[in-house]
Each structure stands twice: as C-alpha cells, then as structure tokens.
Amino acid sequence: MAEDSSLTSPSQPSMALNESSADTPAEPEEAHHQASLELGGDTSGSPQDAGDSSKLEAADSSLKAGGGNTPDNNLAVVSAPAPAELSETLEDTTTTTSPPPPLEQDDKDNSTNPPTPALLIAAANTNNLEIITKCLNAVPVDAVDNNTGRTALFVAASHGNTNALQMLLEHKANPNATDKTGDTPLHAAAYAGHLQVCKALLDAGANVNAVGEYRNRPLHLAATANNVDVVVALLANNAAVDATNCYGNNPRALTTDPEVSAAIQKVATNDTPEMRTLVASERVELVAKRKDAAKQEKAQEAAKTAQLQATLDEEQARRDAEDAEEARIEEEERLRVEAELAAIRAEEEAKRLAEEEEMRRLEEEAAAASKKKKKKG
C-alpha cells in the first residue's frame, strides 16, 4: 500500500514508537503477534512461508505509515487521515484473516474434546452454547488465548455472538478484560458495529472510556467505522467526545459519516446529560421514522405490484376472451361450410338417383315397345 503522506508528517513521527510506554502504541514486534478478531490467524512469531513474510512486511509498512493496522489486527484505528481518505485507508490496511482452525470433534458428539481454554474461546467464536456450558464447568471464564490475550468474551463480542456473550456475562466474565494490545471487548464490538453487544457490555459494567491500543477509546473505533447507532449508544453512556488518541485525534476527526459527526458535535458543543439524552432520543425517532418510511415504501411497492398484476391479469383475460371469440367464429364457419358441402352432396346424390330412375324407366318403355312390336310381327 502506498504510504499516505498525511500520516507521516515531520511534526508527528510515525507511530511515536520511542515515546514513553504509557502513551505509545505497541512495538512493531508485538504488532506482528496480534491476532485478528476472527480468532484463527497465524499469531506465531516466525513466518512459515513467503506468504507470512509478506504479512510481516505489510505490517511494518502499515506501522511506519502510522496506520497501526496490521493484517492480524482489525481493531487498530490510527492517526487521522483526512475524512475523504479515511475509507480508502481502512480498506487498504484491513485484510481478511484465515478462519479459525476446526475443532477436533465429531460433528454430532462434542464430548470427545476435553474442556480447555482454547475450546472455550473457539466455542465463543462459533456461538456454540453447548460447548461453552461444558467448558465453563472446568475452565475459568476469563481464560485467555496465549497469543492474543483475548478472552472468550472478547471473541464473542468481536463476532456479535450475543447468545454466547450473555452466557459468559452470566458466569461473571470480566467485560473490561484487555487483550495484549490493551483493547477491551467493547472496543471490538464498537468497531464491528454490534449495537446489542455494546449495550449488553455497558449494562454489565464495561468501561465506556477504556483506553486501548494507540490510546483509542471505543468511541474512536465506532466513529472510524461510521457506526452511528453504536456512537449514539456510547454517547448516551457518557463516552468522552474530546478524548484524543496518541495522534491527537478526537473521535469526530476520524469519521466520514455526517450523522456521526453531527451527533458528536452536538455533545461537544453542549456536554450535558440532557443533550446526551436528546441525541439518543433523536436517533431513536429518526430510526423509527426511517423504519416507517421503509414500511410505507414497501407497502407502496406492494400496491404498485398488485396493481400491475391486476392490469396484467385483466389484459390476459381480455386476450383470452378475444381468443375464445375467434375460436367460436372459426368453429361456426367450419360448421357452415360443412353444412353447405353436405347439402351439395345430398343434392347431387338426389339428382344422380333421379337420373338413374329416369334411365330405368326409359329402358323399361323401350323393352315393352320392342316386345309389342315382335308380337304384331
């Protein structure tokens, strides 16, 4: 990916890797080990083939460009590119990782796999409540993946697996447990746009202003991904609108969505509980209006479709009637012609019979005259 000049200005060193550890992002070596939210990418330190080497080189390039988003970490939100460039930057620096490795288990019987932290996390990844229940009887609910430092709750949150998340929370999973980058489950859910997951985490005590990788907070990530409903939910739960990440960017600087920008600006201009409540209620009303408009539009489309179908049915009925009338006329004409032909044949037959009868009569008269003449002679 070409280096974005807006990310590497002289006044802002790339990634600020040499600053104090409290305010700086993770070292490049650590970034190479960060697993993706998809739970299953290669997180080993040494590449196994040329493809892995390409991933590491892409990670170094992204870090040097200030992107902070390695191929194995979809959560990293970085120095604020210009709003017009943000979507392209995210698209270039975010890649799809390989799916999680399959569990060594029978498709119909999961009892062959002993409960382990890895199995618990894999079950959270696939929303498998049966396996989660089995594991929770023997595995700590906050057991972490050794490579990523992520808990089962983190994985369930990142994938939007609400059922798995609720079960883990019921078993007292820590909603503020961080992975090796410092991100929490709320960071993951906010970036992925999983609104119901975010609400569940907040209800369970998740820190709405938790500082994660590159000092991004959940609101930074939700704004970067233009997840307006998540942004409004975070604002309603007192997310800080002026907090900056390690590049000095507040959430509003990272969004390209005008609705996200407007919501954050309203709170930034008048940060009161009433304003935050107003922003949330306005969003609810707007969503309701859009749903009603969508329903009306759907109803109108259905009415148009029904009207069109009625017109087509009427036209088909008319054509069927015309075809039936043409068939009736053709049948009448056929019968008339047959009747005329039958009459002609009958007339000819009667004429033939009359001629034959006349011929016999003449022959009989001639025979009688001949016989009479012979008698006289």
* Relative helix content: 55-70%
**CATH architecture annotation of the largest domain:** Alpha Horseshoe
Provide the β-strand percentage band. Answer: under 5%
The SS-based structural class is mainly alpha
CATH class of the largest domain: Mainly Alpha
Q: Indicate the radius of gyration in whole angstroms.
A: 43 Å
Q: Can you tell me the residue ranges where pLDDT is under 50 for at least 5 consecutive residues?
A: 1-110
CATH topological fold name of the largest domain: Serine Threonine Protein Phosphatase 5, Tetratricopeptide repeat
CATH superfamily of the largest domain: Ankyrin repeat-containing domain
Characterization of the model:
The chain folds into 3 domains: 5-93, no CATH class; 110-286, Ankyrin repeat-containing domain (Serine Threonine Protein Phosphatase 5, Tetratricopeptide repeat, Alpha Horseshoe), CATH 1.25.40; 302-377. 57% of the residues lie in helices and 0% in strands. The protein is built from 13 helices and no strands. Helix 7 packs parallel to helix 9 (195-203) and helix 8 runs antiparallel to helix 9. The termini are far apart.
